[in-house]
Amino acid sequence: MPLYLVYAQRFDIIPQLSTTAPTRTSIPDPVTGLYVFKRAFRTDRSRIGDIIPLSHCRMPVQLVPRFGAKADTGLTPTTSMERSREFFLNSYFDKDIFQYLRSSSP
Q1: Is the dihedral of CA 95, 61, 11, 35 positive or negative?
Q2: How far is Cα 65 from Cα 82, in angstroms, rounded to an integer?
Q3: Which of 6, 8, 16, 22 sits in a 20 to 30 Å window from 58, CA-based?
């Protein structure tokens, strides 16, 4: 069986402020209900990523740029993943992801 490889980058969850606790926790954004992520970097500001076997991947996910108060005018379909700093994990992209995230939410 051939070994297929993929390049994957690491994204970290951005803890959100909970309405029930005074600290930030790994919960969805209270407005959108979506988890918020940011790209992970090493101390030298290089991205954390690696080449891994495709068999280690469970499923594709869709990350959507989180614009904030005003969208960057330089964003295009080609540049949005490079220029954006924060992303929403679109849990509506796939029914299995939706069910998993809804069942594991606090």
Answers
A1: negative
A2: 10
A3: 16
Structure confidence by residue, pLDDT tens digits, 72-97: 888 888 998 888 889 999 988 888 87
Q: In the chain, how many domains are there?
A: 1
C-alpha–C-alpha distance, residues 30 and 92, integer Å: 16
Burial class (CB in 10 A: 0-12, 13-18, 19+), 87: buried
Q: Which long-range contacts (CB under 8 A, 24 or more apart) does 44-50 make?
A: 47/9, 47/10, 48/9, 48/10, 49/7, 49/8, 49/9, 49/10, 50/7, 50/8
Contact 80, 104 (CB under 8 A): no
* Assigned token pair, 37: 């992520």
Per-residue pLDDT tens digits for 12-53: 999 887 766 667 777 888 888 889 999 999 999 999 999 999
**Is 34:88 a contact under the CB 8 Å cutoff?**
yes
